[in-house]
Amino acid sequence: AQSVTQLDSQVPVFEEAPVELxxxxxxxxxxxxxxxxxxxxxxxxxxLKYLSGSTLVKGINxxxxxxxxxxxxxxxxxxxxxxxxxxxxxxxxxxxxxxxxSFGAGTTVTVRA
Amino acid sequence: SxxxxxxxxxxxxxxxxxxxxxxxxxxxxxxxFWYRQQPGQSLTLIATANQxxxxxxxxxxxxxxxxxxxxxxxFSTLTVSNMSPEDSSIYLCSVESENYGxxxxxxxxxxxx
Lengths: 113, 113
What we know:
The structure holds 2 protein chains of 2 kinds.
Chain A: E1 3-6, E2 10-14, E3 19-21, E4 23-26, E5 31-38, E6 44-50, E7 56-58, E8 64-68, E9 73-78, E10 87-95, E11 102-103, E12 107-112
Parallel strand pairs in A: 2-12
Antiparallel strand pairs in A: 1-4, 3-9, 5-6, 5-10, 7-8, 8-9, 10-11, 10-12
Chain B: E1 4-7, E2 10-13, E3 19-25, E4 31-37, E5 43-50, E6 56-57, E7 68-72, E8 75-80, E9 89-97, E10 101-104, E11 108-112
């Protein structure tokens, strides 16, 4: 079975500073990887996904993530955050031969002026 | 990607009663997924619902507690039965759009008193 570990439960960051959210996964077979964002009182929105190809994936709102197979990681980055990036971010994984998403515990990003 | 309309958006219910949550999708989809997000926690898959067959429940979830209907390819309901305060959570439905683009409803915030 696969599992996802988000290494930071809370990340406070100042506006216009860079942010990195760490995600590691465990699986004995190939996986697809995702980052979702949940703004306060809203559902989940896909930020980006890695299925194959280039290991650097660019998503919406200036976010990007890099798939590192040797380190089984999929860290999310943004070079300059805005107040509007305050949200809960979830890393998720799915086995390539399956259809069920497994989510990490989430990282709360709080952006301060 | 698919657009999901989920309702109600929130409800406060008395213990011992039941609540039915509805999800309507703007396109035909094979599988629909139901998740629970307990306060301050990540998403846990409750069950997968295919049209024309019984839902498949994950470990820890049973049909008597969370009956699901899937009458056609665009609609599904989840009922939370005989509720207790421990059922207070956000419940979300999800569908797979093309190329592993999972879309989520806006969620139903349930409080059981």
